[in-house]
Amino acid sequence: MTENNDLMAALGGKIDSKIEEVCEKYLSGPAILVEAMRYSLQAGGKRIRPILVLLSAEICGGDEEKAMIPAVALEMIHTFSLIHDDLPAMDNDDLRRGRPTSHKVFGEAMAILAGDALLAFAFELIATHYQSTEREISLLTKELSSATGPSGMTGGQVLDMTFEKSAKTLSDVENIHHLKTAALIRCACRMGAISASADKIKFDALSLYGQKLGLAFQVVDDLLDQTSSVENMGKNVGKDHGGKPNYALICGDISQTRQRAETLIAEAVDALSIFGNKYQPLIHIANLVLKRKS
Ligand code: IPE
Ligand code: IPE
Ligand code: MG
Ligand code: MG
Ligand code: MG
Q1: Nearest residue by C-alpha to atom 14 in ligand 1
Q2: Could you tell me if 126 and 73 are in contact, meaning their C-beta atoms sit under 8 angstroms apart?
Q3: What is the DSSP string of 15-27?
């Protein structure tokens, strides 16, 4: 366990360094835009998605350094989604990753533009700075664009914004969660597999793992919104009252919600069985998602 925690910390540190490196080398533009992009990117998130890219590549026999560009690109997309999620027109939040949100520091227009720029920069990284075949670049672009776009995260955010509580079932909520959150987490695993030229059996297993883990991740986020504290989370809690598709609120029962998250995590771990169930880091991440306090 300690070994796995050390590994997570080490991988998180490598991701942070790579983010710094690509910003130094490749990020240019108006100073205020670059500052806003870096402010949110380098606020120190958990880096779960890029870590999943690296570990998924590794389990398929791939090279960690090669998987770094897709990993960092995905963290840029995730950061863009958080900046926009916090905007007054969306969740209207003033705290993120323990800091004032982008629009509180830079104003709304610059926060929107920093999000736009991170979205585009992610694809620039893959198209221009990922050292591999045209085919792999194209496969990664396809994965990342579909997970981000109308049938992925952005589509899910639309359903989240237009959600009306009346007569909604838990399966309606799960559908939203699949899109707004699981799409990018599943994408992390799939991009890792692609960068390792994995075969279809491994690709499909990691896809299923990512989907189950991603759904569990948002169910736990909903649970923490109801039960945790701003100090632990680095973002406001109790924000989902008032019409949000929060699993715990729609379910009306905290222990049933926890039970659902536990089942999903067990299913995620099961999906790894083709690897012989001995690959501890991915199992460890699944358990961390369940136990996380931030
Ligand atoms: C927050 O994601 C948004 C959700 C999908 C719930 P994380 O909890 O991974 O946020 P960071 O990256 O650690 O800040
Ligand atoms: C966020 O869901 C999903 C995204 C695509 C960013 P939430 O709105 O629940 O995320 P938090 O709680 O603000 O991090
Ligand atoms: Mg939201
Ligand atoms: Mg939010
Ligand atoms: Mg939330």
Answers
A1: 45
A2: yes
A3: HHHHHHHHHHHH-
